[in-house]
């Protein structure tokens, strides 16, 4: 049973606040230039791989505006210039013009050779960065240009190069198989100090090629405990707090929190190859039985969005292009026993499972639940051991494009096909979406693929998640990014 957020004890609040005491002491003073305040940032997850950009730690470097990529993405997911100013495609090869006048934080100049060094290190890494999974990529310098060639023609190369895992760093960052970003980026802030998994510091880089940062620096504290992060915002010990738990949001001033739609959908995957849900009419019965609104209200306390499709409000173009989907007719469940699996790593999922159990039982199903840690249940889910599986799934992977997610989860040979869907008509539209050039045509092809998947009832999207970000009253210009690539930018400062 969930304890109401407002019953958090004074002792717990004090203990949580104590975790932050002293962490941001230096932030009270002005920066080295004597102007403005340093931004005090409380983050949820500590580094897992020494802040190597070849890991998910790359997103921290991006959110601190210290490491940059050749390309960035606009709100629609289309590629825009960053360290590359323009690019063109010729078959399997893309040519990128490298921006002039850029220096790394150690004073060395950005050139084609340094770009090739970083991209080659990523392509040769073991394991590869996730964005290059299944992609053979080679980079070569050609004067002031860089050519990137893939084994097969790939319209998503610019979007792939926007991934923080393909950040461009100075030569000093690369020592053997390790990559150390300390003082090696090109962004408006220079990473100057890392204290293991507890904290990090960044100073403004005054020779930045773009707009000079408004804040003199950033002081980062890693605070895995959600109550402690919320307490830091309440007490004024942090200026920006990421990932405030739903249970803590009610304790904060409503004006200090922003709910950011995430490209993440809570979905019930149904096993289409074996068991009761091999029958499309029973899959339809399950869909009709689910009341997603009550899950949003009861489990997520209203801080989520009821799903209309697999792609949610973090991709605003999806709703504009979506049309009605024709699905199979439902038949009444007659005591069929189904087993639903999910995991404990996301606190809400066991509660979602319990609510679904009640809803499906009211519709005539007999429902068993199996709940474990994700590491101990993923292989069984992929092997089809469950009749249904509840998953919180990112719908745009590192390229910012949903076609890869749709193919991975619903193609006959998809690597994450929990529904075990094998439908040639679905495969056809999935391949079309993946091969279509970026822009409006690709977005329409993606929505066509989404409709084909939804028509099978292999997956029942229930809700789209939000992340809650806390900004103190004096914070100006903090980013609220659904892709979690930006947080403190050159425009961010504290009054």
UniProtKB/TrEMBL annotation:
Keyword Nuclease: no
GO cellular component term, pick one: ATP-binding cassette (ABC) transporter complex
Keywords (A to Z) from UniProt: Signal
Signal peptide: 1-25
Location of the Solute-binding protein family domain: 80-415
A Pfam family reported for this protein in Swiss-Prot or TrEMBL: SBP_bac_5
GO biological process, one term: peptide transport
InterPro entries reported for this sequence: Peptide/Ni-bd, SBP_5, SBP_5_dom
GO MF, any single term: peptide transmembrane transporter activity
Recorded superkingdom: Bacteria
UniProt protein name: ABC transporter substrate-binding protein
Organism for this UniProt entry: Streptomyces cupreus
């Amino acid at each position: 049973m969930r304890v109401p957020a407002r019953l958090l004890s004074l002792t717990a609040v004090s203990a949580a606040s104590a975790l932050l005491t002293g962490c941001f002491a230096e932030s009270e003073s002005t920066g080295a230039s004597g102007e403005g305040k340093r931004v005090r940032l409380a983050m949820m997850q500590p580094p897992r791989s020494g802040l190597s950009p070849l890991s998910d730690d790359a997103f921290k470097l991006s959110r601190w505006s210290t490491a940059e990529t050749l390309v960035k993405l606009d709100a629609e997911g289309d590629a825009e210039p960053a360290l590359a100013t323009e690019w063109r495609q010729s078959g399997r090869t893309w040519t990128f013009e490298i921006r002039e006048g850029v220096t790394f934080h150690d004073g060395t100049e950005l050139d084609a050779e340094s770009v090739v060094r970083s991209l080659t290190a990523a392509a040769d890494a073991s394991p590869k960065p996730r964005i290059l999974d299944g992609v053979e990529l080679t980079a070569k310098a050609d004067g002031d240009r860089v050519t990137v060639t893939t084994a097969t023609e790939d319209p998503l190369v610019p979007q792939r190069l926007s991934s923080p895992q393909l950040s461009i760093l100075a030569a000093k960052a690369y020592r053997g198989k390790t990559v150390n970003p300390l003082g090696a980026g090109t962004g408006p802030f220079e990473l100057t100090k890392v204290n293991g998994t507890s904290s990090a510091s960044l100073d403004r880089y005054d020779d930045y090629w773009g707009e000079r940062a408004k804040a003199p620096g950033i002081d980062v504290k890693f605070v895995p405990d959600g109550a402690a992060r919320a307490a830091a915002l309440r007490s004024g010990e942090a200026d920006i707090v990421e990932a405030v738990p739903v249970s803590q949001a009610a304790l904060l001033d409503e004006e200090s929190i922003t709910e950011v739609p995430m490209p993440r959908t809570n979905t019930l995957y149904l096993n289409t190859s074996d068991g009761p849900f091999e029958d499309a009419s029973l899959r339809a019965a399950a869909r009709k039985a689910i009341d997603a609104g009550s899950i949003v209200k009861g489990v997520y306390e209203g801080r989520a969005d009821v799903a209309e499709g697999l792609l949610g409000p973090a991709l605003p173009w999806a709703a504009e292009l979506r049309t009605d989907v024709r699905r199979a007719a439902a038949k009444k469940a007659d005591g069929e026993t189904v087993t639903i699996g999910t995991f404990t790593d996301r606190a809400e999922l066991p509660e979602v499972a319990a609510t679904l159990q009640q809803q499906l039982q009211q519709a005539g199903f007999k429902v068993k639940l199996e709940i474990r840690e994700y590491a101990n249940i993923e292989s069984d889910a992929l092997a089809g051991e469950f009749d249904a599986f509840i998953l919180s799934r990112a719908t745009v992977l590192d390229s910012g494009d949903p076609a890869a997610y749709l193919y991975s989860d619903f193609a006959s040979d998809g690597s994450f096909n929990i529904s075990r869907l094998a439908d040639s008509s679905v495969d056809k539209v999935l391949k079309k979406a993946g091969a279509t050039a970026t822009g409006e045509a690709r977005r329409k092809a993606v929505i066509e693929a989404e409709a084909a998947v939804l028509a099978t009832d292999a997956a029942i999207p229930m809700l789209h998640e939000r992340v809650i970000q806390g900004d103190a009253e004096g914070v100006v210009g903090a980013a609220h990014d659904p892709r979690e690539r930006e947080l403190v930018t050159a425009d961010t400062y504290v009054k």
